[in-house]
Amino acid sequence: MKFGKEFTSQMVPEWQEAYMDYNYLKGVLKDISCFKKKNAPLPEVAATPNGSLKRRISMYRAFSGLQNRFSFKGSPDRTDNEDEEVILVSSLQQEGSQGHHQTMFLMSSEQGGEYEMVFFRRLDDEFNKVIAFYKKKVEEVKDEADVLSKQMDALIALRIMVDKPSIGMPSDQVMMDDDSTLSPGSVVPTHIRSPGGSHMEAIEEVEMTGEEILEEESTSGNRDKEKRNLMRFRPAPIEILDNVKINIDPATPISTFKNVIRTSKANSKFSKDELKKAEEQMKTAFVEFYKKLRLLKSYRLLNVLAFSKIMKKYDKTTSRKASKSYSDMLDKSDLGNSDEVNKLIERVEVTFIKHFVNGNRRKGMKHLRPQAKRETHRVTFFMGLFSGCSIALVAAIVVAVRAQHLLEHKDRDKYMNNIFPLYSLFGYIVLHMLMYGANVYYWKRFRVNYPFIFGFKQGTELGYKQVFLLASGLSVLALAASLFHLDMDMDPKTGSYETVKELIPLVLLFVILLITFCPLNILYRSSRFFFLRTAWHCLCAPLYKVTLPDFILADQLTSQVQAIRSLQFYVCYYVWGNFKTRSNTCQDSKVYKILYIVVAIIPFWSRFIQCLRRLFEEKDSMQGLNSLKYFSTIVALVTRTLYDQKRETFWKVMAASTSGITTIANTYWDLVIDWGLLQRNSKNPWLRDKLLVPHKIVYFVAIVLDIILRLVWMQLVLEFEELPHLHKKAFVAIVACLEILRRGLWNFFRLENEHLNNVGKYRASKSVPLPFNYDEDKSM
């Protein structure tokens, strides 16, 4: 792989604009090369045929090895300008703050020198851009390191307050009061920083003598020495907790209610539960901070390598020796010799291993640097196997239907009304998974950082092959079951169908639920639990703080209304219906009709409540408008369902009007707000300034498809002429599948827009809430 492609592939996607523009500089060098070729002098005709005399003589020289170890000053091959200075790099201090590097090209008078001046001018711009961004990020991590240091001081003081360790210290050094709590006045403070102290030094100094005590105990049996070591042990000052409030985000709906009811008073007692939650939050904060440091280190090294490569390419193109001078400047700059990030990385490793994994380095590094999943041929093999089996089963079902003339069977309606909805549920799920797998493939192809956007734990996100494997495996089970269940003939003796066959859909559903909730570490447990946790947050909205995965999943569920209604039908059919005769009467009951509306509006209601919570928390008026959009969708869904049940003119007019309003609102929101398109004054007319897909026609096709697919479900209200020989249940299923396809299309451009927003803000790591709030007024 060429360096340009490797350079692009290793970039932090959200920082892409802050990297050196290697391709542009490479293009400038290409212009220089073309100019030199056009203006190169014609070679003189050699007097000696079949090559020059110089080449023939060189064949008789002594061989001095594959590497040129010796150089002779009098060598005729040495060019005259080898030791001439080509560039002069200087650092200019600009008004305020950061140094500005400027390269002076000393041979601009030569032919084609203006091209090289353009190259060095752009090279300076790129270098100053990179170093300014790097310095800014270094200052940010320094400030964050100071915050984590203070958080660690509070955490260790909280550990002492809760655990009350005596660790064999003299009684006059650790005193217990009557309530058997550690007396704050009995602990000698150790949080004293030197003026030149670095950012994580306080963390390292908190438990100063842990290793020293063990080492000296093992080397000396002197009792007095052990006592002196114990006297030197100074735990973190508990007085820190006087100026600290524990800020633990509610993790359950019950704790949310407690947090609302509880008054804002200082904690008088600390529990082990609070300590455990604080430790978990600090552990997560350190992992994210370490990830940010590694990204910054990678950014620095990759840019240094890029500048080195482009200068070597310049030397090769122009036959000059300028890379040495530029490399010397690069090594002396903050980008080349800065070790602040490396020191922070080392200190974070030491701190994390010592305080969160009991000194187990292997375990600590496993948390800090989770290994990426390895692609295995097993996944590819089974994905291909299940996909082939699914295609074969579809063909077998088609052949069976045609051979047995099932479309003209007298019990066709009974089958479509009772059995088809049971299996259509699995079809909806498989189709949605296929669309998600396709999205993952294209997100990865166009470098959309979907694991970061969704908040997946590093190394646990599913690739498109894993998603396709799960989808094809489920499709094999569902298609095989439906093929076995493709029977419309009732047993004439018993007057019923086979019980085993009629229970197949219920057993299959039970197996799927069992796998989904299985606690064993099989079949991508981390992803399954992530899905279940997010689904629970959607169900319990607004009791949880709304995150992007929560409202994205709720949006997916709004496209699975028919799947949710199929689950309701399972209860109706197998509990109140007679599955042996494929009949049920519960669909005619008022309770079922009411629940038919309620279960359909659950995902829309969840999004409505999520928008209201975000409106109150973030004070964003757009969330208020978004909530109105979902409320209008709920009204349209209710009126449409009532019209489907009552078939009255009034409800038809209401359904058509409300559906039309919500269709226009949702379509506008899709294209303008969620996708960020239809911007008149953008660089790409009617699209947006930044596009990831190189072909603009893709966006216009997506716009048209979204509008058409939004209008398709209006067919259910306006009652256009249906396709001949197509059952109503099948038509509803087709419309539901088209909505799932529209949602899959929406997903790609929604996350593309989210990714570009992160890129615009250079947001490559998530912010983690910290457990402690310092009261600055009291601490001063």
Structural notes for this entry:
The protein folds into two domains: 1-40 and 86-369, no CATH class; 377-404 and 414-760, no CATH class. It contains 30 helices and four strands. The chain has helices spanning 3-9, 22-38, 53-58, 113-163, 201-206, 210-219, 223-232, 253-261, 272-318, 323-332, 334-337, 340-356, 361-368, 377-403, 412-418, 420-445, 450-454, 464-484, 499-502, 504-517, 525-539, 548-558, 561-576, 590-618, 621-646, 649-674, 697-712, 715-718, 728-760, 776-779; strands at 87-93, 99-105, 244-246, 772-774. The strands form two sheets. Strands 1-2 form a two-stranded antiparallel sheet. The protein has a two-stranded antiparallel sheet with strand order 3-4. Strand 1 and strand 2 (99-105) form a beta hairpin. Helix 16 (420-445) runs antiparallel to helix 23 (561-576), helix 16 runs parallel beside helix 29 (728-760) and helix 27 (697-712) runs antiparallel to helix 29 (728-760). Mean pLDDT is 80; it is low at 45-83, 167-220, 229-233 and 263-268.
